[in-house]
Specification:
This protein is an all-alpha fold. The chain is built from nine helices and no strands. α1 packs antiparallel against α2, α2 runs antiparallel to α3 and α4 runs antiparallel to α5. The longest helix is centred in the N-terminal third of the chain and has 26 residues.
Length: 196
């Protein structure tokens, strides 16, 4: 039994490391290699945990984001919708992880031009984070920034400004003025102001 546990844990660690490498490659813009690593990781996690497990769903979501970056919107939506369903069924509807996935799914709907679905998901995630964190958490700042960017992209820059400012305030309070996310938020707010 111990040998089986050791093999299982070794395979799980390998799957996680493979996914982490995929994320690194994705952030470097090496999308084909990222996809290969994430598909390998997904195969391992499906074998270890099945398709209806939160760990598997997390990898499905990340692979869906890579598909979106590659312009493969139908595949991205398929994986991200499945991942969200699994997370809501296994972890819960009103959880940080579900709101995170809703934000990623909103980005994909925005990229596909389905703005009404994107906006509904952004607002649902914002409301959920506000209930979970009472308005002051970096993840709330992140989703506010993403929603503000979406509003900028669809020509609603006046509305976007208040969301950029809310995000900046939260990120400054929670991460400090010198944090890279704060600098990024400042740049996005300035870009928004310059466009008006």
């Amino acid at each position: 039994a111990r040998e089986i546990d050791n093999k299982f844990n070794a395979k799980r660690r390998y799957g996680r490391s493979t996914n982490n490498l995929g994320i690194t490659l994705w952030k470097m813009g090496r999308l084909v290699e990222a996809e290969e690593r994430m598909r390998e990781s997904l195969r391992i996690y499906e074998e270890l945990f099945g398709t209806q497990h939160e760990y598997t769903a997390t990898i499905m979501n990340t692979l869906g984001v890579v598909y979106r970056e590659q312009g493969r919107i139908p595949q991205s939506l398929n994986l991200q919708l499945s991942a969200l369903q699994v997370i809501e069924e296994t972890v819960g509807v009103h959880t940080r992880r579900a709101y995170w996935l809703k934000g990623n799914l909103a980005d994909t709907y925005a990229a596909s031009g389905e703005h009404s679905k994107a906006e509904q998901l952004y607002l649902s995630a914002i409301q959920g984070y506000r209930q979970l964190f009472t308005n002051a958490h970096p993840q709330l700042g992140r989703i506010l920034t993403k929603y503000a960017e979406f509003l900028d992209q669809i020509g609603r820059s006046e509305e976007a400004e208040s969301y950029h400012n809310d995000a900046l305030k939260i990120l400054r309070e929670q991460l400090g003025s010198q944090h890279p996310r704060v600098a990024e938020s400042l740049m996005k707010a300035a870009h928004n102001a310059a466009r008006r």
